[in-house]
Amino acid sequence: MTFGLVHGGAHGAWCWERLIPELERRGHRAIAMDLPCEDEGAGAAEYATVVVDALREFEEPVALVGHSLAGLTIPLVAHARPVRRMIFVCGLLPEPGLSFRDQQAAEPDILFPYKGGRAGLRDRFYHHCAPEDADRAMERIRDQALKPYVEVTPLKEWPGVPAGYVLCTEDRASNPAWSRRVVPERLGIRPIELVGSDHSPFLSRTKELACVLEDLATS
User: Fold this and answer.
1) Which of 23, 82, 142, 196 could be bridged to 28 by S-S, CB 3.0 to 4.6 A?
2) CA–CA separation, 70 vs 90, rounded Å?
3) Closest C-alpha to 45, from 69, 17, 77
4) pTM of full prediction above 0.85
5) Closest CA to 206 of 129, 97, 142
């Protein structure tokens, strides 16, 4: 199985560096890429192009994993290339015809309120990570441009691809209560819950996340 790993806002391919060896130990391939998240002109369509290009050499359907903000991108990738399953990890879910800001106005509980600036991201994203892992992540975190949040999603309709959803019960960014409510309504599935995990299970619960992703991808 080939996994395409798509990072969330302000992150990079680096955030999957522990997960990739775990998937490889299980006999799979995993490809991660850097999205142009600092580019004010790049939105979900441009992100999807980067993902498609990174996976171009793999003709077989991939298991496409999108963390957090990448939930706005991976359905576009599934329209552009063969995808076996879309797996959202703490993921946002785009609604055709709306921007993410429109969604927030209608559903203000999607994300927990946040006014902490860059310094507050450590507690928001990494509060169950080892201190040295949180330190290293904060050294590599990038600025995130606003276009993916404010543009009307380029997604016209959801792709006919099976989906999975991983919910982290101690998430301080994406609201688990919102995910429990909307995932069955919009994806027709129940989320899998990583009990006790923060927003960054690729760092804090790597082996458990690898096991869940494998199960979802091969089911």
Assistant:
1) 23
2) 10
3) 77
4) yes
5) 129
